[in-house]
Design brief:
- By secondary structure, this protein is an alpha+beta fold.
- The protein folds into two domains: 61 residues, no CATH class; 163 residues, no CATH class.
- The chain has five helices and eleven strands, in the order H-E-E-E-H-E-E-E-E-H-E-E-E-E-H-H.
- The strands form three sheets. Strands 6, 7, 8, 9, 10 and 11 form a six-stranded antiparallel sheet that branches. It has a three-stranded antiparallel sheet with strand order 1-2-3. A two-stranded antiparallel sheet has the order 4-5.
- It is globular.
């Protein structure tokens, strides 16, 4: 009976339909119990082991090429490139959008934080969620929105991976739109490859010269102080440029510091 060895092998793989493999027929030699495969296109006869090895190479190489060990080139070290990474899926509802607060009223804002102590967002209502709410950043009077966001972009691009022993895996600005007033950046941890999402946005009606801020982990419950260190580092650089940029303060977020076991 003729069967397709390619179909048998690929049938159990989730990416079976992603590749087109020349069909091979298998047969059993009358003089031996060795299983062979015959490629109708080339006329080659191979053992099953040889056929599977060739098939594995055809499947594995495209997968390896599309899955680099590290996401960002500005990482501080290659030491942990061989470790599996847990980047987590990118949230589908990032950016400025219509949200609903705890009582169902709609508002325009960034994605609200969940219950975990690993997220901060300035568009979260401080009365509804004091643990995750932080003040918006305010740029100096006389500066246009576009100028302010160009300045923000420069500060983010000058960020030092590894500062405070965080973000050693580097970062990448995914979206930079100073005219609309929005920047989206991904930061990566060095060892496990965790990705944190960082956004700044201007939202009409949220305050004069105000820039909304969000920094959040994708994976896990705790962040061990990572998001607060990132926010505070960038806020400090902005304050030196005459912004009014408050960070995550111990006085207002004692629960966060206690749960993550970090000192302010």
């Amino acid at each position: 009976m003729k069967v397709s060895s390619a179909a048998i092998f690929l049938g159990s793989l989730p990416f079976a339909n992603a590749f087109t493999i020349p069909v091979q027929q298998t047969f059993v030699s009358q003089s031996s119990t060795q299983l062979y495969s015959f490629n109708e296109k080339s006329g080659d006869v191979n053992t099953r082991r040889e056929s599977l090895q060739k098939l594995m190479s055809a499947v594995a190489l495209p997968l390896l090429a599309s899955s680099p060990a590290n996401a960002f080139d500005n990482k501080i070290s290659n030491q942990y490139d061989d470790r599996p990474k847990r980047r987590g899926p990118q949230p589908k509802d990032l950016g400025v959008a219509t949200r609903k607060d705890m009582v169902g009223e709609e508002y325009l804002g960034l994605k609200p934080c969940g219950p975990s102590p690993n997220c901060f967002c300035s568009t979260d209502d401080v009365e509804d969620d004091p643990d995750h709410s932080i003040p918006a950043w305010t740029y100096p009077k006389g500066k246009s929105q576009e100028e302010a966001f160009n300045e923000l972009y420069d500060v983010i691009m000058a960020y030092k991976p590894g500062q405070g022993n965080i973000d050693g895996g580097g970062f990448k600005v995914v979206t930079n739109d100073p005219k609309k007033g929005y920047i989206y950046t991904q930061f990566e941890s060095l060892k496990a490859g965790y990705i944190d999402d960082f956004e700044v946005a201007y939202i009409e009606g949220k305050g004069e010269n105000a820039v909304q801020v969000r920094s959040s982990s994708r994976v896990g419950y705790l962040d061990f102080g990572v998001n607060s260190k990132r926010i505070n580092y960038i806020a400090d650089k902005l304050n030196k440029l005459r912004w009014d940029a408050k960070g995550v303060e111990y006085a207002t977020h004692k629960g966060y510091y206690a749960e993550n076991n970090v000192s302010p």
